[in-house]
Amino acid sequence: MNTIVLLTLTGLGLAALYFLVASGLSLVFGLADVLNFAHGLFLGVGAYGTWWAAGNLPGAGGEGLGFVLAVAFGVAAGTVVAVLVELVLIRPLYSRTIEQVLVTVGLSLAGVALLQATWGADARPFPRPAWTRQVTGILGAQVPNGGLLLIVAAAVVLGALLAFLRWTRYGLIIRAGVENREMVTALGIDVRKAFTLVFAIGGAAAALAGALGGVYFGTVSPGQGGSLLIFAFIVVVIGGMGSVVGSAYAAVAVGLLQQFVNYYGASGVGDLCVVALLAVVLLLRPQGIAGKVAHA
Amino acid sequence: MTDSMVEAPPARVPDELTPHRRGWHGLRPYLPLVALAVAAVLPYSTLELPGIFEGPLNSPGTLQLLAVCLVFGGLAAGYDLLFGRTGMLSFGHALYFAAGVYGTDILVTRAGLPLWQAALLTIVGGTILAGLLGAVALRTAGIAFAMVTLAFAQVGAILVARDFGGLTGGEEGLPLDVSGLPAGLVGVANTVNLYWLALAYLALVVFVVHRVSGSPTGRVLAGLRDDERRIGVLGLDPYRFKLVAFTLAGGLAAGGGVVYCLIVGGASPHITSSELTLSLLVMVVLGGPGTRWGPVLGGVGYMYLDHRLTAFGSSDAVESLPAFLSRPLSQPLFVLGTVFILAVYFFPGGLASLRTRLGPLARHLPARRSP
Amino acid sequence: MTGEPVLTVADLSVRIAGLHILQGVSFTVAPTGVTVLLGRNGVGKTTTLRAVLGLTPRGGEARGTVRMGGRDLLDRPTHRLVRAGLGYVPEDRDVFAGLTVAENLRLAERRGTTPAYDRVFALFPELDRRGRQRAGSLSGGQQQMLAIGRVLLNDNRLLLVDEPTKGLAPKVVTEVAEVLERVAETVPVLLVEQNLAVVRRLATDAVVLSAGRVAWAGGAGELLGSAELTRSLLGVGSGEVRA
């Protein structure tokens, strides 16, 4: 029983990380048709931004409010980078889908290399508040607080995203744009402003994933975003591109499957099961669980 | 430069279709043979090219670098069969290459098979693998296809990294057991044979891709790239043609893996990474998708730069720059990634379009000289 | 035709994926009434409407001039054209199926202007009643009402309406035609329509396209009154009218 609770909660922690990365990817893809390979870079910027701020930014640090400030700085850095990428690199290639993918591919290669050039290829210890290193007893299982933090953060982000999509004008434009972008412009709306917005949202969520993932894993390295990104892609496809709720369901399914099978089967078999799940979903429902609809 | 953004990439027109001009262009059909001959006799040269290669041309180090470049030239040409010629954006091509490398390595080193059996089994196996995975992945199209192929390739990376059954050597990689190999392929002194093997592989891939794209099947593939619905209207099944291209490209990549395994003497897990597929894409786009020589040039050039930029990054010229410049410049992927992004904006046709782009200029120059 | 045309299309050529869909199309739209764009399937009627709106697909190219109120429209972004007074009711309705009726309407609201909900609900009381229903679950006719309604939320200088009766039951076709007749009393309409009964009822002027060119333009009555013209231009006898 203890093991099952522990595996469930660590699986949800993993799912939270996937969701933070995948929700932005999914919205960016659903609205702007951009398969964003540079999304892992936003995560890296968030992680290194937090790490840097904790050591260098006045007032920021590894504990309490200082840590909150450091994370806020990392998230802000990720958001700014994401917005710049959209405005400078993606927007001039508007509606040229393949070229946009190519640019994000180049950016992911160059960006990771730049992080590596600046801070070295090796993993660095990540600043984390003392309480995140402790465990909390839940139903007899000793669950790491870092994982719980991730789950809470992802739940808050999910709630905020859904409220934003459901209740705001831009949320309405994004939901409509995911369904039929051309018709949104034919109603007199400049849909490109919404593109910038989803990049900003996606960048912020991915940067948060970078910062909290750093806390969870205890280290930060330039390649971290890349390996997470592949599973986030799988989550996006399974969940249905453009659907935030679909991403949440798919993230939970993938996180739990991976954690349980890796524990009860051999290590790595869980990862294989995830890909098998992807193949099954594609064969049964090529459009993913939720189809291409941004549900509120 | 602004013009180049609007204009359709000229490289999309296959070489075969552009009208040949008179004069020395009459020789053009023979140029590939001349280039092949030059490349074949190159190991007999002791020419020193300081700054370009570290040793003379026939030194084992230079020949090995060239051999790796040639294999990737062939690999990029094979990948272009998917991307440039059929319009399929696969992010999992590294899988079939890695299958070739690890397949050969495992069959020789772990199973003790003779090389020719191992190579044959590996290529057949890699082709079947591509056929099976392609059959599933091609049920999707466009971006979803890209993601699915990426996920499948990830399985390969996981299998290799987790070292199931102790076959792959995990993170350490698996050095090739050379004791059972033909003597001519073993040892530093025989690097030249590996070079010729790589050259033969490149020539084979270019020949196959050229023949396929000139055949009726190739015209259907080009039609799929331009507008899939039109092929459907003709009563042809796009799925079958795409699967043929995917399987063939996978088989060619597996063959490249066999050669690469021999050249570097083993397998290491980095060849299974998605980064390698992304590099293939970079090579093809830099060279010029859908052209006969563009992807080859892109592949050879990319691998050369990837190796040489490391040396360039630690050279005195770069070291003397301020840190914020020298550190990024010492990362080959930073330089290549940036060049790639610029190429997407300003050179949509890649290297192969240079000739077309510089053509008007070249015709202009002599005209000026003679008033 | 009386008065300055609301829209002038001159020498409009559209090329998509290497195919010349339109080859120098020129016509005008009268400031009142319904100008109908006719022609067999695939002659470029929808392409013309979309080119006017700047919706030529990626890889396509539109050349020529399209003028409304003395300004050239070509190469201006679609959302600006729509804000300048071009209302678009697309083929196949294209309502947002996952959004509610009220959300579909709210999307058309614009900052700085008061949306004319009273006008829309006076024409389509059903839209008011079904505000919370998802647009995807509406019937074809109701979806068409929504597509027209969301355009009428704002004031327009010209409506572009693409095959509004396509795929609808005969009774609903009549309803849609009635609505368009009322709408056309206040705003000029450029209409693409295959149903000759509807054309007969609404059209004041007609432009016939054939193979990417204008084959005939003039009063709708003249065209529909002549059996010979309708047969040669539209390929139907005047008695052969689909209801």
TrEMBL record, chain A:
Pfam families, per this entry?
BPD_transp_2
Keyword terms, alphabetized = Amino-acid transport, Cell membrane, Membrane, Transmembrane, Transmembrane helix, Transport
Q: Does the keyword Membrane apply?
A: yes
Source domain of life: Bacteria
* Localization (cell): Cell membrane
Q: What broad class describes the main subcellular location of this protein?
A: membrane
Q: Where are the transmembrane segments?
A: 6-27, 34-54, 66-89, 101-119, 146-165, 194-217, 229-256, 263-284
One cellular component GO annotation, for this chain's record? plasma membrane
A Gene Ontology biological process annotation?
A: amino acid transport
- Asked if the keyword Cell wall biogenesis/degradation belongs to this entry, the reply reads no
Q: Which InterPro entries match?
A: ABC_transp_permease, BCAA_transport_permease
Which GO molecular function entries does the Swiss-Prot or TrEMBL record give?
Answer: transmembrane transporter activity
Q: Which PANTHER family match?
A: ABC TRANSPORTER ATP-BINDING PROTEIN, BRANCHED-CHAIN AMINO ACID TRANSPORT SYSTEM PERMEASE PROTEIN LIVH
Belongs to which family?
Answer: Belongs to the binding-protein-dependent transport system permease family. LivHM subfamily.
What this protein is called in its record is Amino acid/amide ABC transporter membrane protein 1, HAAT family
Species of provenance: Micromonospora haikouensis
From TrEMBL, chain B:
Q: Where in the cell is it found?
A: Cell membrane
Q: Which GO terms describe its cellular component?
A: plasma membrane
**Molecular function, one GO term:** branched-chain amino acid transmembrane transporter activity
The cross-references to InterPro entries, in alphabetical order and at most eight, read:
ABC_transp_permease, LivM-like
Give the way it sits in the membrane: Multi-pass membrane protein
Q: Which residues cross the membrane?
A: 30-47, 62-82, 94-113, 119-138, 143-161, 181-209, 243-267, 333-354
Q: What is its main location?
A: membrane
Keywords, A to Z, come to:
Cell membrane, Membrane, Transmembrane, Transmembrane helix
Q: What is this protein called?
A: Amino acid/amide ABC transporter membrane protein 2, HAAT family
Automatic annotation (TrEMBL), chain C:
Q: Where is the ABC transporter domain?
A: 7-236
Output this protein's name. Amino acid/amide ABC transporter ATP-binding protein 2, HAAT family
- Entry's Gene Ontology molecular function annotations: ATP binding; ATP hydrolysis activity; branched-chain amino acid transmembrane transporter activity
The answer, when asked if ATP-binding is one of the entry's keywords, is yes
- Pfam families reported in the protein's UniProt record: ABC_tran
The family this protein is said to belong to: Belongs to the ABC transporter superfamily.
Alphabetized, the UniProt keywords read: Amino-acid transport, ATP-binding, Nucleotide-binding, Transport
InterPro entries from the xrefs? AAA+_ATPase, ABC_transporter-like_ATP-bd, ABC_transporter-like_CS, BCAA_Transport_ATP-bd_LivF, P-loop_NTPase
The beginning of the lineage is: Bacteria, Bacillati, Actinomycetota, Actinomycetes, Micromonosporales
PANTHER family in the record, alphabetically?
A: ABC TRANSPORTER ATP-BINDING PROTEIN, HIGH-AFFINITY BRANCHED-CHAIN AMINO ACID TRANSPORT ATP-BINDING PROTEIN LIVF
Please, one GO biological process term? L-amino acid transport
Record has Cell membrane as a keyword? no
Organism in which the protein naturally occurs: Micromonospora haikouensis
